[in-house]
Amino acid sequence: GAGVSQSPRYKVAKRGQDVALRCDPISGHVSLFWYQQALGQGPEFLTYFQNEAQLDKSGLPSDRFFAERPEGSVSTLKIQRTQQEDSAVYLCASSPHTVADTYEQYFGPGTRLTVT
Amino acid sequence: AQSVSQHNHHVILSEAASLELGCNYSYGGTVNLFWYVQYPGQHLQLLLKYFSGDPLVKGIKGFEAEFIKSKFSFNLRKPSVQWSDTAEYFCAVKGSSASKIIFGSGTRLSIRP
Prior knowledge:
The complex is a heterodimer. Chain A has no helices and eleven strands. Chain A has strands at 5-7, 10-13, 19-24, 31-37, 44-50, 53-56, 65-68, 75-79, 88-95, 106-107, 111-115. In chain A, a hairpin with a 2-residue loop joins strand 5 (44-50) and strand 6. Helix content of chain B is 0%, strand content 53%. The interface between A and B is medium-sized, with 26 and 25 residues.
């Protein structure tokens, strides 16, 4: 596709439910990133994949958050037992380069998660 | 701790006014610096970036930014704003070999026609 796509665009979950958010990066992009953006804040890094390898997950806020990219393309961010503080926009970004190279990231439209 | 500070939460200007948005960062080591913009209803997109070389960087739509290493600053400027520049602007920093980009909290720019 022409850009990074994410689905669903909006998700409402009851507290305690599990959710799965999907990211389709730009075809051929090596690097994939997930960010969480709370209302009125800038994006905060969650995790980074180089191809299928999750090389940095230091930003995941708790063990309820899990991300995967099993074939090095599509990625899924899963949140178990959602809490109200998980309400945010979840952004995915991809890059044709590895983080060791100078690069820029291309962002998707985000998934707005509301936990009620 | 690594951080980015954007001093102005909301800036309101008239068309044709000059713009300067402040950005200071705290990061040890070699950095890459970015300004991203998010127009209403659109994705975050890159406005300009600094990796090395000339500290005065020119981006799209007439924007520029100057990296002043001694001040840990990367302020965004535009000599004459247009109504279409209404958007949220995010400054960001990345260590040259790090995986994460650290974003500031953003500055909302409103332009009066």
